Amino acid sequence: MRDRAATRALVLGLLALPFGVFAPFAIFSGLRSLRRIRASGGELRGATRAMAGLTAGVIALATLVVGIAYWWLAS
After folding, report:
1. Is the pTM of this model over 0.85?
2. Which structural domain range is residue 59 located in?
3. 67 to each of 33, 38, 55, 56, 61, how far by Cα in Å?
């Protein structure tokens, strides 16, 4: 059975790339899903989706922070 939070993390991570506001939610959902998958003892699947969402969320958050810092320093 696939963990629904893993799919949610992937969708939020993909949405976070153009819309950075979704990044913290993608990170939270990805971490939570990975914990649940590891604790399930093999009953839940979807670690790849959760990791992809987590990675996209981290990339989007880093881009957002660097962009805000650049904007703040340049003005």
Report:
1. yes
2. 4-74
3. 28, 34, 18, 16, 10
